[in-house]
Amino acid sequence: SAHRHVGCVMISSPSLLSRICGAIAIVFALVLAASLVLMFASVGIQVVARSLFNTSVLWLDDILMSCFTVAIFTGIALAFRKRAHLATTVIADSLPENAARIVGRLIDIVSILAMAGLAWIGIDFAQGAFGQFTPVLRLPLGWVYLIIPVSAVISILFILETQLSDRDANA
Which of 36, 40, 78, 116 has the greatest count of CB atoms below 10 A from its CB? Predict the structure, then answer.
């Protein structure tokens, strides 16, 4: 059938889910790239400021910490989409095809459960962080930490996308 239920959402075709995930992946990749550029620029400016001018640009530390957090969690989600996490490939690749498929599904189930737990904890963590601020710029940390539950939910979506595309390829 061309229709699949994912949770309580009906996906009319695997290509729709792939297109949605593809669009999200592009946004995440752009956010990751921007975070990395800002991180490297912040570190470079700090090195120059400290070595040449014997001073520090304190507010860059706020940017660096925020970008580091965003880069980690967007990278985690993108790695699930590319099946680039170590356990998803190394363990399954060392087994015969049928065993690899079963172990791969088990790894995905464990990953979904871990990401669901991370989403749950991340929501609580982000909510609590709205009362905390970066030291210099006084930015609410809750906005930075929202990437934790968001990336966890997107990771689950990417895992489901992979499972559905694997199932369609084997059908």
Answer: 78
